From TrEMBL:
<dbReference type="InterPro" id="IPR036688">
    <property type="entry name" value="MoeA_C_domain_IV_sf"/>
</dbReference>
<keyword id="KW-0460">Magnesium</keyword>
<comment type="similarity">
    <text>Belongs to the MoeA family.</text>
</comment>
<comment type="function">
    <text>Catalyzes the insertion of molybdate into adenylated molybdopterin with the concomitant release of AMP.</text>
</comment>
<protein>
    <recommendedName>
        <fullName>Molybdopterin molybdenumtransferase</fullName>
        <ecNumber>2.10.1.1</ecNumber>
    </recommendedName>
</protein>
<feature type="domain" description="MoaB/Mog">
    <location>
        <begin position="179"/>
        <end position="317"/>
    </location>
</feature>
<dbReference type="Pfam" id="PF03454">
    <property type="entry name" value="MoeA_C"/>
</dbReference>
<comment type="function">
    <text>May be involved in the biosynthesis of molybdopterin.</text>
</comment>
<dbReference type="InterPro" id="IPR005110">
    <property type="entry name" value="MoeA_linker/N"/>
</dbReference>
<dbReference type="InterPro" id="IPR005111">
    <property type="entry name" value="MoeA_C_domain_IV"/>
</dbReference>
<keyword id="KW-0500">Molybdenum</keyword>
<dbReference type="InterPro" id="IPR038987">
    <property type="entry name" value="MoeA-like"/>
</dbReference>
<comment type="pathway">
    <text>Cofactor biosynthesis; molybdopterin biosynthesis.</text>
</comment>
<keyword id="KW-0808">Transferase</keyword>
<dbReference type="Pfam" id="PF00994">
    <property type="entry name" value="MoCF_biosynth"/>
</dbReference>
<keyword id="KW-0501">Molybdenum cofactor biosynthesis</keyword>
<dbReference type="InterPro" id="IPR008284">
    <property type="entry name" value="MoCF_biosynth_CS"/>
</dbReference>
Length: 403
């Protein structure tokens, strides 16, 4: 049995970043950029008004006051999208809308709220300096400058930025194709009637959701009966089709656990078969022709925990996400937690923020079939394998889940 850290570093070392593809802008959301993005233009492309107001010469307002207001003649209006050809002269103003280009001769914009408007003239009672309420050409970025570095995850902000920079096709890393194999003769589907000895299949659905949540492509082969030949055939087919194969159940030492036999028959390169983690000890990681295989336990909580701790980092790495360890932060225990020593305990808890600090509350039994507990939890605390009790007030590392 290896430690969680050893398991993780093995997985990361054995996982390769996938190649690249070019997508339409919107399809690139949540993908990882595979090229540096340089600005093709100056942004903004011209000096523009940041306010609704009047484009004027600041000099014309020098020394003005309530007693001696500056009076300027209004020569016209510029709305966003228009270009005003004529030059602005002294003692003149041109009404200007937010986003419209500053006319030649103007050096500042005074907000509409700060002037008194008459039919063809305005008065100003307070001097205004140069370059007020103006966005200068190239102020955001200049043509040829690096805008978004390679490796950055494309979020909604980057989608907007890429559009404003003139990019409609984006080179990104591919996403892995995941094949799910769900084993167990006891499993019935959601709408079937529960009969003695049978339970509803939930792992297939949690795994579909977990993979989807990361933006991976996922295909399920459905429930596969506990039949050694069938399981072998399906694993072989899954390796043909996917980048990552994940099975749930059938990987322990029971009489009807056939995953390991099939993996041996296929001569996969098994890297480990057990990790000191609770829930989820019997987790196998293997490689076959550069594809990854994760045999996850059958218990529903173990499935989620092992996916989160081991499969998720592999998927992220394949997608080009450079994330060695999940975001951990200190969490203060609100209650005592008793666990069994020997494995790192991932305890599903409710983490709440109080006065700027995070506190952990119990969310329920940590039995490995307790999906109800995980549903009440929003995070985990990690109790290391040499500790059997942690007390209220102690500080542990915690994480939010399903990020
Ligand atoms: P196994 O690893 O196949 O021995 O399964 C361990 C436990 O998880 C057993 O109680 C199974 O009934 C349960 N289990 C396995 N697969 C699923 C599944 N897809 N949905 C819900 N429970 C499952
Ligand atoms: Mg089983």
């Amino acid at each position: 049995m290896i430690t969680v850290e050893e398991a993780l570093s093995t997985i990361i070392a054995e996982t390769e970043v996938l190649g690249t593809e070019t997508l339409n802008l919107i399809s690139s959301l949540n993908r990882v950029l595979a090229e540096d993005i340089y600005s093709k233009d100056n942004l903004p492309p011209f000096d523009k008004s940041a306010m609704d107001g009047y484009a004027i010469k600041s000099k014309d307002t020098e020394g003005c006051s309530t007693e001696k207001p500056a009076r300027l003649k209004v020569k016209g209006v510029i709305k966003a999208g228009d270009l005003y050809e004529e030059e602005l002269h002294s003692k003149e103003a041109i009404k200007i809308m937010t986003g419209a280009p500053l006319p030649r001769g103007a050096d500042t914009v005074i907000q509409v709220e700060k002037v008194k408007e008459f039919s063809d003239e305005i008065t100003i009672i307070e001097p205004i300096g140069r370059e007020k309420n103006i966005l200068k050409m190239g102020e955001e970025i200049r043509s040829g400058e690096l805008a978004i570095p390679l490796g950055k995850k494309i979020r909604p902000a980057e989608i907007g930025l890429l559009a404003s920079l003139g990019y409609s096709k984006i080179k990104v890393h591919k996403i892995p194709k995941i094949i799910l194999l769900t084993t167990g003769d006891e499993l019935i589907d959601i709408e079937e009637k529960l009969t003695p000895g049978k339970i509803r299949n939930c792992n297939e659905y949690s795994l579909l959701a977990l993979a989807k949540n990361l933006g991976a492509e996922v295909k399920s082969y459905g429930v596969i009966r506990d039949d050694p030949n069938l399981i072998f055939e399906k694993i072989e087919e899954a390796f043909e089709e996917g980048d990552i194969v994940i099975s749930s159940g059938g990987a322990s030492v029971g009489d009807y656990d056939f995953i390991h036999d099939s993996l041996k028959k296929l001569k996969v390169d098994t890297k480990f078969e057990a990790v000191a983690i609770k829930p989820g000890k019997p987790v196998t990681f293997a490689k076959f022709k550069n594809k990854l295989y994760f045999a996850l336990p059958g218990n529903p909580l173990s499935v989620i925990n092992t996916f989160e701790q081991f499969v998720s980092p592999a998927i992220k790495k394949m997608m080009g996400i450079d994330e060695v360890s999940a975001d951990e932060f200190p969490v203060i225990l609100e209650e005592d937690f008793k666990v069994k020593k020997g494995r790192d305990n991932y305890v599903y808890v409710d983490i709440r923020k109080k006065n700027g600090a995070y506190y952990a509350y119990k969310a329920g039994s940590q039995g490995s079939n307790q999906l109800l507990t995980i549903s009440k939890a929003n995070g985990i605390i990690i109790i290391d394998k040499d500790t059997s009790i942690v007390r209220a007030g102690e500080i542990l590392n915690g994480r939010f889940i399903f990020k």
